Amino acid sequence: MPAGVLGRLQQLLAFASLIAIFVFFSFASPNFLNYSNVTSMLFSTVVIGTLALGATFVIVTGGIDLSVGTGMALCAVMGGVLIVEAGLPVWLGVLGTLLFGALVGLVNGLNVTVLKLPPFIATLAMMLVAQGLALVISGSAPIYFSEESGYADISTGSVIPGADFPNAVLIFALAAVLGGVVLNKTLLGRYTYSIGSNEEATALSGIDVRKWKIIVYVVSGLFIGLAGVLISARLGSAQPATGMGYELQAIAAVVIGGTSLSGGKGSIVGTVIGALIISVLNNGLQITSVPQEWQNVILGCVIVAAVYADNARRSRA
Fold first, then answer.
1. How many domains does the chain have?
2. How far is CA 279 from CA 22, 47, 62, 86, 253, in A?
3. Is 134 within 8 Å of 240 (Cβ atoms)?
4. What is the reported pLDDT for 8?
5. What membrane topology does the annotation report for this chain (predicted)?
6. Which domain holds residue 189?
7. What is the mean pLDDT of residues 285-299?
8. How far is residue 31's CA from residue 98's CA, in Å, rounded to a whole number?
9. Nearest to residue 250, comparing CAs of 80, 87, 46, 92?
């Protein structure tokens, strides 16, 4: 079976798994299938899903980004510094947060391409640096946005009249559409797939691989900055100690959605499905009172199954 068909089949299986999990918990608990809980699941998908969108670009190139979680916390802190401490307007502070996220991605890209560090090591180092800087800049204390009217509405407000539907979900949906267009319809997307499929052949064809890999990490950084805005607006504060662990769930969402860890294959639609699977699974297990330790065991098994499916697909290609 052709590799493209196998990839679409894995994506369809991921979607079927999402439907099956949703139906199972709908019967398992009467509190699962209601508007409030469904909205809560979508809301909980936003941060992990946004980080996963950026991670998709990196993983399609055959790289990895372990800094997305602590980078998000650092961006949130920088947003607090710009808006609360420097007194910038909210829109300008948000723009500054996104640009700072791009800077985090730029540093990652330079470390990978110029210093030629393995992506795992380069982003692991950034993960630690971002974690430390977030604590240093904030003085190890949260920065509250309580005096900044409108900032919380970015995440928890609703632009839909008469509906208690958070803006963060709409922003995530728009970010996913934009990410899908960039990955599938632009030169950056074509080069991203090409680099992941065969970096050496891409370079021999005259493409500046170094430049485009840096751009890919910058794009990932923009999504990190956006996640920093969304989580701090949701919490009403920039929490410097948050972030650890988010990178694992973001990468898990990408892998569950069918993106190959070896690069060259993947999609934004699959990543969104993967993020939804994690959120629905976590929510359903909590509602059915499954202990936290078993929730982690089950999620780990799902990740193993997704990676096994990816390996099987590549071995048959």
1. 1
2. 10, 11, 26, 36, 10
3. yes
4. 65
5. Multi-pass membrane protein
6. 58-274
7. 86
8. 37
9. 46
Give residue 76's Cα distance to chain centre. 15
Per-residue pLDDT band for 277 (boundaries 50, 70, 90) equals very high
Q: Is residue 310 part of a domain?
A: no
Would you say residue 140 lies in a domain? yes
Residue 37, beta-bridge partner list: none
Cα 19 to the chain's mean position, in Å? 21
Q: Is 218 among the domain residues?
A: yes
Residue with tokens 């751009």, as numbered in its chain: 215
pTM above 0.70, yes or no: yes
| Residue 135 CB neighbour total at 10 angstroms | 17
pLDDT tens for 102-145 read 999 999 999 999 999 999 999 999 999 999 999 999 999 999 99
Q: How far apart are CA 165 and CA 181, in angstroms?
A: 25
Residue 302 has a pLDDT of 82
